Amino acid sequence: MTTHEQFADDLALYALGSLAGETAADLDAHLEECAACRQELARLQGDMALLALSASGPAPPQRARQRLLKAIGHEPRSPRAILVRRRWWTLAPVFASLVLAIFAILLWRENARYRDRIEALKSDAAQNQATLEEAKHLLVLLTDPSAKHVTLVAAQSKPQPAGKAIYMAGNGALVFMASNLAQLAPQKTYELWLVPMRGNRPLPAGMFKPDRDGNAMVMMPPMSPGVEASTFAVTIEPEGGSATPTMPMVLVGS
Amino acid sequence: MSTVGLQPGSADAALIARIRSGEQDAMAELYDRYSSLVYSVALRVLTDTGAAEDVLQEVFMQLWRHPASFDARRGSLGPWLAVIARHRAIDALRKRRPQTDLEDVVIAIESDLEGAAERARAAETVRASLRAMPAKQRAALEMAFFQGMTHTEIAAETGEPLGTIKTRIRTALEALRRALNAGSPRPRLASNT
Fold this sequence. Notes:
Chain A has five helices and seven strands, in the order H-H-H-H-H-E-E-E-E-E-E-E. By secondary structure, chain A is of the alpha+beta class. In chain A, strands 4-3-6-7 form a four-stranded antiparallel sheet, with no helix packed on it.
């Protein structure tokens, strides 16, 4: 291998750090590719080292040694310790970020779950609201004194007292509507009875008095849930009601 | 080409290994072995003892902080420290940031300079070679090496053409190498291709 002659002068200047600008850049690029010139550069550095050796002079003062050893003492360097400590310090923020990231993802997921839940609840609430509005209207219709109640019977027949009980045994909900009832004597009241499927003792299911038109209603009297009904009946009782029905029955239905 | 690197069993190799594992005593030993060399180079360039001490401190602290920056395959420790000291001293003289990366300094040298006696002998050979050079050649080399002047600055100062300065510096370095190779008492060659 021989050095490229055209670079020989520049290599010497390059080793001395005296080459700059474009020439230095060109030589840099050439050195990347040319092993012979790299070798020559290393030799030139060797020459410079020998040149430096020729500069022998006085030894440095003692204080320079103390200064160095003090500085080294301030920068103790146990490779293993530094490695471990550095890893610790370097990795701590990484761990922290990781934990935060995981935490953030968990929070985000929980947040998303809650958002879904809220949406579902909102939708339920809207539905409930609609049902409630409907029920309210129904209730107003049934209970408002200004509502007109008309009982339809077969044409050309005389209206008879009649009643309709709507009952759900599961929750004990009961609505009773009657029409064409005869007016009561003073100190008397109509009383509705529920005759259970098991055991024949009738249970009181509310007292009522008809309006001027003979219409009356019992809405949701306090009943025990779970009692299957076989028969409903209406009797006339003294004001305040009775423990057992007083015969005869005004209305009865099974 | 063959050059001298640190032999595995050499005193320098053992010191560097101990420095790498953080032994402060090893650093003190290394300092005792090479501080005069580093300081002399810095003082020759800077001609100021305080500034030379700063360079001395900087060079050894760098080795302490980055012992891996010295790679025995790239040359032996003494010449490497001398070249680093010269570069850092020129940087200080020119009041600029360090221009040379420690890892970039690769030294091929055909003499064993680990012992103080070998170094003294080599230094004497170099001085004799410099004395034997034509004055202008020596001046150009010393301006470039010890004063850190660029060839353009030397050409401007001496009034010589640029090409002449370039050739003069290269010829001076070649003369130096010839003298060293001829006078090398005991070339210990480690393969380094």
